[in-house]
């Protein structure tokens, strides 16, 4: 009989959770682009002297002095773009954080408690889900009239948390039924420890991906609000650049250097964040990774 | 003498992986005669499911067939299964060879009811027929497998596991194929339902004369119902031959270990032991016999060369067709023959059960 | 000697379907006793209620009715009582993959029960405790295995870890819910032998839940057969297997694959099924009046319209079937 300790005949397989695996390309690209913009947002404005300085060069196309041209008041587009990066990314990040905190709290609480409390929280999130987002945002911004990135982020969070909450609740419910949760209970672990050390770590992937979604939503909503002129117009964001460009009829005046760069930046950041999400998915679910097929002559499946 | 309907020669299947190609099936050869039941036994990772998918051309990337041939005898002609493509392949699949998958819940479309799924098969392969003909055929098929015809409008989730599996069998039979490949068809089912389904398959086999390749880890099941058995380990066949021969004298140490892993329900109590260790990691190159690390009878040549499948020099029964891949049966390597512990029947076959 | 006594255990579930609400009785007045040093097998098909019983005994869910007593003491509901119960009664789950948290190392899995139940207080004694547990389940070397994560281990190794975790609080009762049905065949016996060895070493009372009659016979001294929430037969293992009294047990025994059946076929003897095997329909909630097995039983009579009580086929061999009424000289009190 096997009285000796069973020797490890199995060689160590590649870890799936801890990223000792080569990160998927999508993730690397996405994170790089995001990191780039975050860097710009963090230190860019320190290098720009005065984005609001007006000059006599009105609506000038790109040149040596103004690499991305000027606006109709002679402001340097590139400087505005850099400062706008900080504005947009800040709102995006804040909105992301607020949404994830709100939706995770409601979603997890509902899933873990069950019963009447769960029904009530579900009802709450369903109501918010059904409320028309944009009109609500417009109404509230109009009403509040506060200054700065935080109020806008809060408003975006309040109107946009419900979707994530449902997803998190569903995932928590599925996790809750896993045997290891039951095993933790049988071991005698108290409920709070199970929540914190068994459930939450396994929710990390979905929380991460929902955070990225929320950030995309935050940036886009802010851009939308600013474009409609509802945002705080003292802060420069990419959205506000579009607003002013639209007002000055930059499109019909062929002043592409004014509206194309901010639009492009919004798209790039959005796409990069989406890539991060896809990459995270691939990292977590190895089945999604596209494997390179064995290339042999006449090989078929 | 029964004639051969499917012959597989030296089939090799590889999967691409991060560590390089993994050989899931390594030089497998066998023959299937008309109306015969061939059992393929083995545990997880031995390659039996990959083998099943390869012969029915259902392999998905990153798996590719990298060697060997598969020939099907159809209307007196040998068809090269691996050479088929496009339309001929589509016609070949299901008309000549059909497959019953392990988990019916995964294989049946959850949003289509039973009638639609059966009709789909008929529409695809018998396009000229009328709807009335298809309806009649669907009813016929369900009756064949013992399901009430009013289940035609049911959805898969409304059926029990046993019924879903019967629906899968009905689908496989729809076009009266010559060969049905069954990949663990009853593993997820209760032993009573399993017995019913296997009896059903036997009855249908006697009625229609198709051959069955039955893949399962339950060796005792195969010992009961199959005509020939191939035991797979590490992507290779390690023992192959008529079931009678294997019952009389299991030869390969793995086969012996496997038969000993099933406690006898009614027999005398005997000391029980499994096989220590675990199945090999096929992504690592294996020197010599893949079973050697777990084999209690391993000796010098086992770590050096992989044994080939050959008929043992000393065959207790007069059956020449038993083959074993083990150095212990190679007179050149083991002149004294295999140890006494091998080659003994574990069942007292003279007593007929009550 | 430890005893875990279960009396008239009932568990009902409300099932919401399209037609409205129905009550599904998963466990229907089940009674048995687990004793130190003995393995009791609970055999049944999926849906028979055996896993529900395990969950109730592990206190993952509470019974709708009935009593459970550990060493004669009924179960307390206070947190301390629950903690005390858990240090005596532990469970091994069916799926070795999902019963370990993929994000925690083996060391964490084994350290926690030692901490929770105060078996080892400081870091050093915990490390020793972990190493000891690993050697009891024959896994080594300890430092290497303790640092591994579940996905780096094979199914058999994971199940050994699960057993080690269950042993950490030094329990006296072990509930094994289908501990090997998800493992490879050649590994099953090793794990069952391990549980057997541990039972003898620690004088555990083991409840072995399975659908496999063969292993139940080998590892258990007593077998209880469950059908649709009821125990329809119980008695010494060899008796129940070799001389099955209840029609359902006979059905199970005859349905199991047996290479000897080959001879029967070759001898061209027509196989007469012991019971009528009917094409199974959808699982219904079961007839509440009368014997639950009636619809599938070839030996059913009119008497079966009433629920049968337990009769004796032999002094310690109980069977819940009217067909044994005449043979029974000391019938138990009839229960409806």
Explain what the structure shows.
- The complex is a heterotrimer of chains A (301), B (354) and C (336).
- Helices cover 66% and strands 0% of the residues of chain A.
- Chain A is an all-alpha fold and 301 residues long.
- In chain A, helix 1 crosses helix 2 and helix 8 runs parallel beside helix 9.
- Chain A starts with 24 loop residues before the first helix and ends in a 17-residue tail after the last helix.
- Chain A has ten helices and no strands.
- Chain A has one domain: MetI-like fold.
- The N terminus and C terminus of chain A are likely disordered.
- With 354 residues, chain B is of the alpha/beta class.
- Chain B folds into two domains: 228 residues, Rossmann fold (3-Layer(aba) Sandwich); 96 residues, no CATH class.
- In chain B, the strands form two sheets. In chain B, strands 6-7-8-3-9-10-11 form a seven-stranded mixed sheet, sandwiched between helices. In chain B, strands 2-1-4-5 form a four-stranded antiparallel sheet, with helices on one face.
- In chain B, helix 6 runs parallel beside helix 7.
- The radius of gyration of chain B is 21 Å and the shape is globular.
- Chain C contains eleven helices and twelve strands.
- In chain C, strand 7, helix 7 and strand 8 form a beta-alpha-beta unit.
- Among the domains of chain C are: 157 residues, P-loop containing nucleotide triphosphate hydrolases (Rossmann fold, 3-Layer(aba) Sandwich), CATH 3.40.50.300; 45 residues, no CATH class.
- In chain C, 48% of the residues are buried.
- The longest helix of chain C is centred in the middle third of the chain and has 18 residues.
- The two termini of chain C are 33 Å apart.
- At the A-C interface, helix 7 and helix 8 of A face helix 2, helix 3 and helix 6 of C.
């Amino acid at each position: 009989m096997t009285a000796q300790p069973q020797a490890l005949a199995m060689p160590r397989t590649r870890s799936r959770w801890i990223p000792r695996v080569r990160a998927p390309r999508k993730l690397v690209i996405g994170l790089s682009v995001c990191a780039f913009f975050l860097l710009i947002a963090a230190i860019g404005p320190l290098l720009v002297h005065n984005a609001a300085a007006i000059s006599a060069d009105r609506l000038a196309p790109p040149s040596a002095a103004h690499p991305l041209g000027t606006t109709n008041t002679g402001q340097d587009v590139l400087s505005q773009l850099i400062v706008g990066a900080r504005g947009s990314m800040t709102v995006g990040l804040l909105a992301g954080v607020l949404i994830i905190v709100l939706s995770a709290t409601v979603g997890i609480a509902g899933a873990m408690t069950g019963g009447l409390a769960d029904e009530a929280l579900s009802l709450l999130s369903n109501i918010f889900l059904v409320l028309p987002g944009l009109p609500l945002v417009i109404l509230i911004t109009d009403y509040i009239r506060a200054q700065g990135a935080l109020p806008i982020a809060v408003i975006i969070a309040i109107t946009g948390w419900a979707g994530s909450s449902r997803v998190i609740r569903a995932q928590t419910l599925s996790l809750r039924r896993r045997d290891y949760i039951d095993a933790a209970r049988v071991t005698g672990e108290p409920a709070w420890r199970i929540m914190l050390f068994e459930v939450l770590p396994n929710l990390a992937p979905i929380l991460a991906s929902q955070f990225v979604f929320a950030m995309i939503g935050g940036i886009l909503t802010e851009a939308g609000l600013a474009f409609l002129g509802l945002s705080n117009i003292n802060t420069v964001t990419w959205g506000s650049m579009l607003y002013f460009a639209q007002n000055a009829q930059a499109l019909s005046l062929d002043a592409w250097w004014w509206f194309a760069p901010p639009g492009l930046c919004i798209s790039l950041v959005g796409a990069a964040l989406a890539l991060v999400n896809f990459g995270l998915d691939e990292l977590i679910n190895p089945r999604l990774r596209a494997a390179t097929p064995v290339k042999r002559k006449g090989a078929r499946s | 003498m029964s004639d051969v309907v499917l012959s597989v020669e030296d089939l090799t299947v590889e999967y691409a992986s991060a560590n390089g190609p993994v050989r899931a099936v390594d030089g497998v050869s066998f023959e299937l005669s008309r109306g015969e039941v061939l059992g393929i036994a083995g545990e997880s990772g031995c390659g039996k499911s990959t083998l099943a998918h390869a012969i029915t051309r259902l392999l998905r990337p990153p798996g590719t067939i990298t060697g060997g041939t598969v020939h099907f005898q159809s209307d007196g002609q040998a068809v090269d299964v691996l050479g088929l493509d496009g339309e001929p392949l589509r016609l070949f699949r299901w008309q000549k060879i059909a497959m019953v998958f392990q988990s019916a819940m995964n294989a049946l479309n959850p949003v289509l009811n039973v009638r639609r799924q059966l009709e789909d098969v008929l529409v695809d392969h018998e396009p000229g027929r009328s709807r009335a003909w298809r309806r009649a055929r669907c009813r016929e098929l369900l009756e064949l497998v013992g399901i009430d015809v009013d289940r035609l409008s049911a959805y898969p989730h409304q059926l029990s596991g046993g019924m879903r599996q019967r629906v899968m069998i009905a689908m496989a039979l729809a076009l009266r194929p010559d060969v049905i490949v069954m990949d663990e068809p009853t593993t997820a089912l209760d032993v009573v339902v399993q017995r019913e389904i296997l009896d059903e398959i036997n009855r249908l086999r006697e009625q229609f004369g198709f051959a069955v390749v039955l893949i399962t880890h339950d060796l005792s099941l195969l010992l009961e119902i199959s005509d020939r058995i191939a035991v797979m380990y590490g992507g290779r066949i390690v023992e192959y031959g008529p079931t009678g021969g294997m019952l009389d004298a299991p030869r390969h140490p793995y086969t012996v270990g496997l038969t000993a892993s099933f406690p006898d329900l009614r027999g005398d109590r005997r000391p029980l032991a499994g096989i220590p260790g675990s199945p090999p990691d096929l992504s690592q190159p294996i020197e010599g016999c893949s079973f050697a690390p777990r084999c209690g009878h391993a000796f010098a040549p086992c770590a050096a060369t992989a044994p080939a499948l050959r008929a043992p020099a000393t065959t207790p029964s007069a059956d020449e067709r038993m083959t074993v891949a083990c150095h212990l049966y190679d007179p050149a390597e083991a002149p004294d023959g295999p140890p006494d512990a091998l080659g003994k029947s574990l069942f007292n076959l003279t007593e007929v059960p009550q | 000697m430890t005893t875990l006594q279960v009396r008239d255990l009932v568990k009902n579930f409300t099932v919401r379907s399209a037609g409205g609400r129905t009550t599904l009785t998963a466990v229907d007045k089940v009674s048995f006793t687990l004793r130190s040093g003995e393995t009791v097998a609970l055999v049944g098909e999926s849906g028979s209620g055996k896993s529900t019983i395990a969950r109730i005994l592990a206190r993952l869910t509470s019974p709708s009715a009935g009593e459970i007593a550990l060493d004669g003491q009924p179960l307390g509901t206070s947190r301390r009582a629950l903690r005390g119960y858990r240090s005596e009664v532990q469970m091994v789950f069916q799926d070795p993959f999902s019963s370990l948290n993929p994000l925690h190392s083996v060391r964490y899995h084994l350290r926690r029960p030692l901490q929770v139940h105060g078996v080892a207080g400081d870091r050093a004694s915990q490390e020793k405790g972990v190493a000891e547990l690993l050697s009891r389940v024959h896994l080594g070397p300890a430092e290497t295995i303790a640092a591994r994560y579940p996905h780096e281990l094979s199914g058999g190794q994971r199940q050994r870890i699960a057993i080690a975790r269950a042993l950490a609080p030094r329990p006296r009762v072990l509930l094994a819910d289908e501990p090997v049905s998800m493992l490879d065949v050649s590994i099953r016996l090793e794990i069952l032998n391990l549980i057997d060895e541990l039972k003898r070493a620690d004088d555990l009372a083991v409840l072995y839940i399975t659908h496999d009659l063969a292993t139940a016979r080998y590892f258990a001294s007593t077998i209880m057969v469950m059908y649709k929430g009821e125990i329809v037969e119980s008695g010494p293992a060899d008796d129940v297997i070799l001389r099955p009294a209840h029609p359902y047990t006979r059905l199970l025994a005859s349905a199991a694959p047996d290479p000897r059946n080959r001879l029967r076929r070759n001898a061209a003897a027509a196989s007469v099924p012991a019971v009528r095997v009917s094409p199974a329909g959808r699982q219904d909630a079961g007839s509440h009046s009368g014997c639950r097995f009636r619809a599938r039983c070839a030996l059913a009579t009119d008497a079966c319209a009433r629920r049968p009580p337990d009769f004796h086929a032999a002094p310690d061999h109980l069977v819940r079937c009217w067909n044994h009424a005449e043979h029974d000289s000391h019938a138990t009190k009839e229960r409806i």
